[in-house]
From TrEMBL:
Species assigned in the record: Pseudidiomarina sediminum
Organism ancestry: Bacteria, Pseudomonadati, Pseudomonadota, Gammaproteobacteria, Alteromonadales
One Gene Ontology term of the molecular function aspect: aldehyde dehydrogenase (NAD+) activity
InterPro entries (UniProt xref): Ald_DH/histidinol_DH, Ald_DH_C, Ald_DH_CS_GLU, Ald_DH_N, Aldehyde_DH_dom, Aldehyde_DH_NAD(P)
Protein name per its UniProtKB record: Aldehyde dehydrogenase
PANTHER family: ALDEHYDE DEHYDROGENASE (PTHR43570), ALDEHYDE DEHYDROGENASE TYPE III, ISOFORM Q (PTHR43570:SF16)
Amino acid sequence: MNDIMQRLRHSYISGLTRPLSWRLQQLSQLEQLLNEHEQALLDALQSDLGKSAAEGWLSEIGFLQSDLRHTRKHLKRWMKPKRVGQPLLTAPGRSYIYPEPLGVVLIMGAWNYPLQLLLSPLIAALAAGNCAIVKPSELAPKTAELLARLLPDYLANEAVQVITGGADVAAALLEQRFDHIFYTGGGRVGRIVMSAAAQHLTPVTLELGGKSPAVVLSDADLQTSARRIAWGKWLNAGQTCIAPDYVLVAAEVHDRFVQALVDAITELYGDTPREAEDYGRIVNTAHWQRLVNYLDDGTIASGGEHDKDERFLAPTVLTQVSPESPVMQEEIFGPILPIIAVPNLAEAIHFIRERDKPLALYGFSASAHSLQQLTEQTHAGSQCNNDTLMFMLNPALPFGGVGPSGMGSYHGKFGFDTFSHQKALMHRPFWFDPKFRYPPYTTFKQKL
Ligand code: NAD
């Protein structure tokens, strides 16, 4: 690892990664990799997570391709030093904000979107002119192996290295001195990453998780809300960091909403989701067992079927759930959706505010005023009204958590900024050099 670090640092210092042309070339190489190995990547996702080709394309490969297009289109402008104003005190002169790369960065991915969560930060890191070590998650082994094989064929090896392995490898990596660490995963390891980074005063971006609530008010279009919640929840079998974790629904429409949700599940996955091509599997047996244990925490209104050999767990709706039960204390990160009735918006807001700041918050209502109250009176990494997940497809929006759901953000220009230092740059001419700024401060003393 020391050798790899030295090699990357040497490349960085040599200036290799600085020119726009180099950055653009690396990004097009990445695009070529995605195009030429689309099928192999989809197969790896299928093998790791039972992801259908359509889902794998939509949520991973297609996402990355549009990220690449957006970055390549705007990169020249993002890199340009931005001229800013100059107060009289510092005139004459010119001031700029000059984005400079950070150096050698570490990117650690999570297993649930093993391609997107590793390569999207890499796109941002390369665009910003950095060298990078990428560490795929060991829990999606087929994707990790494939990336470790393909990336060196497409990207400059002296600037990008893939290191595979588990917690021990990650721990060894974290002992190195990086210029930035970008970590995606759970809060437990997030704490390990942050304390390791503190030893070198390395800044971190932590893309973590948590319990993202959906609030459904009585004036919402219940059918559309249910369909959109079902889509966001059961994509990737619920293993999405911004999936709605639980629903707070207005008591007066509770039963109608639950029915609409059950109907939506049938609409999306048919009567036997186990046979649905577009329904995924749980990543491993340990996670499957953890999820099956939650089934006892409420009344199963729909779903509940499970099979260990297949790591299958049906889309499940739980009602009569106590807020104190494990399913409401821990991030579910799987296909179980608890529904809790609340009397009104104020109670829903109170419920959310009593808990950790979530990564995402979803409000469903026909009332702009109610949705505004939800925005103003809660905290969340992101909020999306009357839909789920869609906000992450807009590269003009930052993606990241707040408090226990993370720190820092990326996507589009926000990713470029995360991997850049905004250097203050001032130019002053020699020709104007009045004496009053220098001691002895006679001019000022006369005024005192
Ligand atoms: P994971 O197990 O894949 O771990 C993430 C990374 O941490 C991996 O690279 C892994 O090798 C490394 N790691 C594991 N143990 C370690 C240790 N002891 N020391 C150092 N490194 C270690 O992922 P996970 O934590 O199971 O991911 C699920 C969590 O991630 C959920 O909470 C989810 O909400 C969150 N998540 C967040 C985002 C986001 O964008 N905010 C995206 C996906 C997942």
